[in-house]
Amino acid sequence: MTLRDSQSRVDAWISKYEEGYFHPLTNLARLTEEVGELAREINHRYGEKTKKQEEPDGDLGMEMADIIFVLVCIANREGIDLQEAFDRMMAKVEHRDDARWTKKR
Known about the structure:
By secondary structure, this protein is an all-alpha fold. It has a single domain, classed as Orthogonal Bundle (Helix Hairpins). The protein contains four helices and no strands. The longest helix has 23 residues, at 24-46. It is flat and about 40 Å long.
C-alpha cells in the first residue's frame, strides 16, 4: 500500500462521520501523545525504566501505526500529498547524504 493509498483509506473512513478531521492543534496534541506512547514502549524495552509487573507488553508496530494514522489525518486535512512529499524528501537525502556515511561493500 502506498502513502497515497493510505491517505485515501483514512479519508474514506473519516468521511463517514459528520465531525470529519480534527482541528490542526488537536491533531498535533494527538501526534504528541502517540509519539509519547512509542517513546514509553521503547524506554520500557531498551531504557532504564522498566514496566510495572502488572503492565502488559506493548506493541511497537501499533504505536508506530498510530503515529502514521495521525500524520495521515494531518496531511489529508491540509491537502498534502504525502507520497509526493516523501518522494521529495527521499530525493533530498539521497543526494545530500550520498557521501556522508560509510557505504557497505
